[in-house]
Amino acid sequence: MTSETLVPFEDVLAAYDPALGLEVHVELNTATKMFCGCPAVFGGEPNTQVCPTCLGLPGAMPVVNGKAVESAIRIGLALNCDIAEWCRFARKNYFYPDMPKNFQTSQYDEPIAFNGYMDVTLPDEGGDGETFRVEIERAHMEEDTGKSTHVGGSTGRIHGADYSLVDYNRAGIPLIEIVTRPILGAGEKAPAVARAYVSQLRDLIVALGVSEARMDQGNLRADVNLSLSPKGSGTLGTRTETKNVNSFRSVERAVRFEMQRHAAILDAGQAIFQETRHWHEDTGITTAGRPKSDADDYRYFPEPDLVPVAPSREWVEELRGTLPENPVLRRARLQESWGYTDLEMRDVVAAGVMGEIEQTVAAGASPQAARKWWLSELSRRANDAGVEITDLGVTPAQVAAVQALVDAGTVNDKLARQVFDGLLAGEGTPEEIVEKRGLAVVSDEGALSAAVDKAIAENPDVADKIRDGKVAAAGALIGAVMKEMRGQADAGRVRELVLEKLT
Amino acid sequence: MTAVVRWTRATAAGMAEALERGETTSVELTRAALRMTEMVDGAVHAYLHVDAEGALAQAAASDARRAAGAPLHALDGVPIAVKDVLTTTGLPTTCGSKILEGWIPPYDATVVARLKAAGLPILGKTNMDEFAMGSSTEHSAYGPTRNPWDLERIPGGSGGGSAAAVASFQAPLALGTDTGGSIRQPGAVTGTVGVKPTYGGVSRYGLVAMANSLDQVGPVTRTVLDAALLHELIGGHDPRDSTSIDQPLPGLVAAARQGAAGDLTGLRVGVIRELQGEGYQAGVLARFQESLELLTKAGAEVVEVSCPSFVHALATYYLVMPCEASSNLAKFDAMRYGLRVLPEGVDSPSAEEVMRATRDAGFGDEVKRRIILGTYALSSGYYDAYYGTAQRVRTLISRDFEAAFGQVDVLVSPTAPTTAFKLGEKLDDPLAMYLNDLATIPANLAGVPGISLPSGLADEDGLPAGFQVLAPAMADDRLYRVGAALEAALEERWGGPLLDKAPALEGGSK
Ligand SMILES: [Zn+2]
């Protein structure tokens, strides 16, 4: 049996219960690294943001970044976790060239935050808005590794490569790893739960302001654990861990794919091999990574070069006061102020653009206009490009600026779409794009009037209908005028002119 | 007396005074030290690397400062040797291992930076057991150091190079590191003074760690006062070392000067019952008893105290230390610096194969032994039984110290159970080698400070024995007060420093 053999999704659910587990790594946006004073910046010339500590040079020692601890506590509080009164870092020992010390300074059995939950809202066609509680086992602090680039070979993976390059700029950048408890009982909604959890976790991280949280940049990386057990058995099956799934949509697809793949193997009476899996964005499948057993022995022990982290209760409460609004309350508040129906609001939440709409409205657009652009035009474009809408590259301020041009009658909705083309192509501000592309609506009454006269002359039967009082027929003439004007006319004004001339 | 002899036999405090009075220059002191090295170090092998040029340049700069009336510190211009486990910009740092051969660190250890900031010329880097693992300096990948008292004998370890450099007058001062006794035991067997400060009292930043929770940097000198001067210079809080204590040091030099006056009235001294008797050489115990009598004579009250958990100290140490060491030494993998060995008969070796070949060729047997011990003890399923249990025993040992310091001001014992043994004698018997540190290890496990100073020569072999004083954490001043008082009483009895009784070395003169 190959891994490509799949069972139809409905058949999976008839025979099996899925158990999900999600591990999300969040790269913090602190100014400096976790244990040294190097700038924690993404990119840059390789191996320039390094020092003896993050290069693991003999004799160098770590010092904990207090800002990273603060961010970890705020994330923990926002996830309804308990915050440890006393916890330590631990060494996770294994050899790999992108890890300068050959151990990762992480946390093991004493995480900074533990025992929390997040209520996620599922998109639900036509039904009630459903929330699903995802329990959080822990959130802990650790350092990132360096980044290996494998050169030669076809896959870009280490196997088959001619040589490898390592950039330690990323080594030591603070990470928070957020681990869920096994998510049971999601059934057919398992893929959607996984997606909604990662998406809403990202919203939370953005609201906290602790990370850039861009999945396409690797600031937020999700590992998806999945297992199946015979329906109703109440047991946990053997799991696979699909690493570095880097979009919400892929999280959903990866869960679905693994469910179907597991079921095919189990249906054939075979056993799931416990391993990591690689996700392939282009083909939407996973392939085998390395074996992973529960007995993987990292020889954890407390990091002796660091003193315990013991956040005072006063500090924790002070940080609790800095948390963004409770997501459920925030949603209700925004829905009321925007005047959206329940259905409209649910679509907005499901699309993960609540924050974007809030910012767009704040920048001056009406709630309905903001919703229109984010849910239709920009969602479609993100889908076509295969990226998250928040990674599309259009900002709320730009959306508001485009809508302002519409409101001023400078462009109509159709021309506005071309302004978005220009924005995505990096052609400048919306105003500049209108100028450069010559997109402004023609407001020259003479030209418009001539075009209307031409349309009437070319469509005498339609004109007669309107003269007979069938005003609804005006649409055909308006369409002809808009075509003549290559869309650069205000359709409302055209309608007025048609009616003026014929009634 | 030649200038070389005159200036190499002076104490660091004496040199500092002579510089102050304009009787000599830093260049003259540094030249004398380097000349002594030329004469005797072929036989002793205290140094792995001598930096004559660098030391003389620093000495000249010191003299210029002094001429301008602006010395940086009381020890400005007094030369010093540094154990090769401390990083030094521009000077090799090998830790006595082949795996770091040729590595030149791009940064200074904090203690080295403090020496430089105070103007002490750095003579060179001293020999040591590989990664500080050993009690004889025979585990150096670059050949053993020999004991200046008898070149057929070991100078102790792991800091045999620093102790031998000071004992053979190649340097008035040296830095050592002490994880289980690596400053104090070499001090005992070479007739010199060595101090392990309170854990956290001296920065470990730039000390290539063997066991991070046990390691401390400390002074290696010929007198108690010199040790206090050096300790005050290198000690104090360092923000780069999270385990460094953010409290001012007690006055160490003042305590040494006070102690040298010889009055210990009211001081309570506890003799540790578990650190004497079986396994201790008769001559070592005899000198220990004499020292106790001198303390009593100086006004101290000497009582016996029991620290029952100390009998488990050695076993505890040999779990904690290898666990930490096995992880610390993982970084030596040929990927970024140091030795790189390509496996034989492999056309296009993988990173893993290069790591394996390099670590096989680059580490000596004792290092491999401890890596294997530590890796095993930390393995899943064994962690609680070994590392976990060891940590609990560590707590018991700390409690024994606390209880004892509730009764007495300082605790005392012989530093090492025997005088220096012959080179090769214990090389094939690791357990016998480990027993040398029986009396020094408890202080490391509990983080308390300790000093070793010479107590005299054992009758049966005429070799130096050491007297150890231990104090509560951050009460390092007590070591200096008691040490200086005992040193003064002993030197009065001997008619001068013990090292005056050492035989002349080939090439060296008395
Ligand atoms: Zn750094």
Describe this structure in words.
The complex is a heterodimer of chains A (503) and B (510). With 503 residues, chain A is of the alpha+beta class. Chain A folds into three domains: 317 residues, no CATH class; 111 residues, no CATH class; 58 residues, Arc Repressor Mutant, subunit A (Orthogonal Bundle), CATH 1.10.10. Helices cover 38% and strands 19% of the residues of chain A. In chain A, helix 8 crosses helix 10. Chain B has a single domain, classed as Amidase signature (AS) domain (Amidase signature (AS) enzymes). Helices cover 41% and strands 12% of the residues of chain B. Chain B contains 17 helices and eleven strands. Chain B has an eleven-stranded mixed β-sheet, sandwiched between helices. In chain B, helix 3 runs antiparallel to helix 4 and helix 11 packs across helix 14. Chain B is globular. Chains A and B meet through loops of A and helix 11 and helix 12 of B. Bound molecules: zinc ion. Zinc ion (ZN) binds next to loops of chain A. The site of zinc ion has 8 residues of chain A, from loops.
Which features characterize this protein?
heterodimer; A: nine-stranded mixed sheet; 14 strands; B: 510 residues; alpha/beta; Amidase signature (AS) enzymes; eleven-stranded mixed sheet; binds zinc ion
